[in-house]
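Example record

The entry below shows one chain as it appears in the dataset: sequence first, then structure tokens.
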Amino acid sequence: MKRLLVVWCVLVLAGCASSSSSRLNYYLLDSGGSALTGPERVSEKRPLLLLGDVTLSEFLRQSSLLVQLEDHQMHYALQHVWAEPLEEAIPKALLKDLRQRSNDLNFERGSTEWFGKERYRLKIQIDQFYPDAQQQVVLSGRYWLTTAESGETVARDFLFTDSLTQDGYGHAVVKMRRLVALLADNLLKTL
């Protein structure tokens, strides 16, 4: 009987440990802090940049955060997931950064409401967006900025990295968010 009680206690403790380790942790790319106050109004006096497609590499189109362990090895963190798809989170964060950094242009997401009113169109391909085993976070890809009137397109590759100074996915997400801000700065220099 005593032995049965010990086995039962071990099973209960193991069950508690496994249930706490299988808990999902959700992460937002942009916490919403330092948001613009009041509704954003498009000024007719400022030219309009439309942010069109933001396409992600196939392996980034899933909910789990991932880490590059080696050159050809990725680890999907099944208990650490994005609270919203990166396909939505990256454009929202990027538009927020562009609006905060420039008073010379209006920035909107490409939609039928804005087509034909824009001076610039922007399309982005994200190839890498994750932390790696070398204590870095990386954001890389390519963007195309087209002037609507002339149809002239400027294409640029980008690569931004930042060092991780703390352990944990939360810190990595903060650093990843910073890389989106660096992309906004780079885009504004192109204009």
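Notes for this example: The chain has a mean pLDDT of 85. Residues 169-190 form the longest helix (22 residues).
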